[in-house]
Design a protein that fits this description.
Blueprint lengths: L2 E6 L3 H11 L3 E6 L2 H11 L3 E5 L7 H10 L8 E5 L5 H8 L4 E6 L4 H12 L1
Parallel strand pairs: 1-2, 1-3, 3-4, 4-5
Amino acid sequence: MKRLAVVIDDDADLRDILERTLEADFEVRAVKDGPEGLRACWSEAPSVVLVDMQLPGMGGLEVLRALGGDPRSRGVPIVAFSAARFDSPERGTVLGRPGVRALLDKIDGPRAFLAAARAAAG
């Protein structure tokens, strides 16, 4: 049985790309927003979660706080990503959140996401 990766991103095209890429190693549950992502994480026990930091509504940092604050998801490794470039203080804020193992730019490409998910999931 494959490990589970949850992808949380509002961009349908990127969700599709990541789903197809990650399927090499993972069963993938791709969702469009933070609340749906949290429900998936809390009900399905993923091996890794990939979270867009610029989600509309419940933003990426809120998702990270919720994941780290709930015993059902506290230990799940996270790969955070964004289309925006982060400066050093912002990178530190994201990378300092419990569970966050990597911070990628959306332009890093599918192979970088797969490598980060593999490394995070162990």
